[in-house]
Amino acid sequence: xxxxxxxxxxxxxxxxxxxRASPVRGEVVVQLEGVRKSFGPNEVLHGVDLTVHRGEHVxxxxxxxxxxxxxxxxxxxxxxxxxxxxxxxxxxxxxxxGAGERRGRALQLRRLVGMVFQQFNLFPHLTxxxxxxxxxxxxxxxxxxxxxxxxxxxxxxxxxxxxxxHFPAELSxxxxxxxxxxxxxxxxxxxxxxxxxxxxxxxxxxxxVLAVMRTLAESGMTMVIVTHELNxxxxxxxxxxxxxxxxxxESGPRGFFDECVNxxxxxxxxxxx
Length: 273
Hints:
By secondary structure, the protein is α/β, with parallel strands linked by helices. 33% of the residues lie in helices and 23% in strands. The chain is globular and about 50 Å long.
């Protein structure tokens, strides 16, 4: 059996009451302008604008079918926008090119933007460690030893180093999702996207995934999160976005949940909270 690289145990994360204040807005990491997306004759995004700054935690919520996940997927071109601009760290990746401007490549973009999906998408025949090391070897050409060391560090970061040699079938749903988070983190992304990462979990397993996300937020990771966990959104969100019918109906900084004025936003939150 291969020896798992040894690591020190992770430290305790700060309590929610000790959470830092909203970051001072600085460098723009993600900027969407006039983003539209159609599937055949059905337009699901109707010209959405969104700006994400370095270190910011943007939370997107709203009813099913409002375009939340589609919007998230346009950021790393898993869904090609039909129109509008998608910029990550100043490089244009969408169709909204300026005169003489060259479009960035999707592979380059996905090295900058990590994504965690509703489903875990782990290879069942690979251990937790190898599920993380494989993309490092394939996408970045990292050697086996270095890839395994980086994978071990990523597992430590999500509190799963002890389970490095276990296969997905030997892990709970929460543990599998934490491996998926570790896999995305191992590529050292500049921004992390989370598409309803707890929706496929049993309720008792949700907390362990949210705890990892809190720790990432406390570390200063730039995050865009689509979620139905509104109490978590209230706690973590530096900037909050309510979507309805393919548009941003209302948005705002911390305090949004108590200060929103749109009747549709209030109706949704009353039904969910």
